[in-house]
Amino acid sequence: MDTLLQDVRFGWRQLRRTPGFTIAALLALALGIGATTAIFTVLDRVVLRPLAYPDPDRLTMIWDTNAAKGLSHERISPVTFHDYRSLKHIFADGAGWWYPQVNVTEAGKDPLRTNAVEASGNFFSVIGVQPLIGSGFPESTFYSSDLIAVISHRLWRERFDSDPSIVGKPITLSSIVYTVVGVMPPGFDYPNGTDVWQRLQWDFAQHSRGAHFVESLFRLQPGVGVEYANAELRALTTRLGGEFKATNADWGARAVPLAHEIEGYFRPALFALFGAAAFLLVITCTNVASLLLARATVREREVAVRAAIGASRARLVRQLLTESALLACLGSALGVASKAGADLSAGMIIGPPVIVGVLAYGLQRVRVREVLVT
Length: 374
What we know:
Strand content: 15-25%
Largest sheet: 13 strands, mixed
Distance between the termini: 38 Å
Number of helices: 12
Number of strands: 13
Helix content: 40-55%
């Protein structure tokens, strides 16, 4: 242990004696590690971690498909929604919603266009998240004429100043007065950054099978897989196509896990970006290794003297490894610290290629100078 501490102290003195080399190496490592860490953090939060809902692997969305029209991701008809929901041996329950255009208007404040959905009464129970404040929608009926709404934590905080007594108070949505019955937990804004969930006020069954404008979320029965659910949906849609040829012919349906639906647009790009960041880290490490080799050339006389006074080859290798490990630890610490600043994200992605190029150019100049001095 004493020898190791001695190597660390000596390595630290060596780094302090060459501030130009130390700063260049640490800057390259910090940018490379910071960029990779930042991209992996985003990848972990968006793709790798499971959704923050109970049994997220059982949550699926159903989309209508029509091969003849080239449609594979179409919203479903409100009438066929009930046909899908009737598959009780496949789905424990299903919730549906559509997107009205909503403005929040209050006296003394500018109107606010907000993302809103008009959802069935079982929406929150299907997804498995209940309001943080208030009771939310009554689940006794799928739809109701009650003018009630649940708001997001963000809207509650920014528009209503985190009023703890917000439940039971009126909120005006597109000139219609609703009553607030709940505030959702922080971070919950499903679907699509929603801030207002209105109570569904009409019967899905009283509509046309040819209208496709409803989105849905279904919770699978325990032990039922997505493949089996899709097989049952194919059988159902085939039967419906024969019974309702005018509206359901050529139409099918497919269930997609909610996690894949949310990640679908971002997964390929994030993995590609992470691969680019990892490749950038390899380039950074290669350039730092080249700097270390150039520095080793300058230290040939020092190594020869230490070997002449009795230092073994293992002792010399251990000292050099200790110095490299110390440099790597310092660079990693700086990289993680730089990643913590959100405003540095763009710099960590764009900056490393520029820095690496400058370091590569500087490395060539150092090598030429060393050759001339030798």
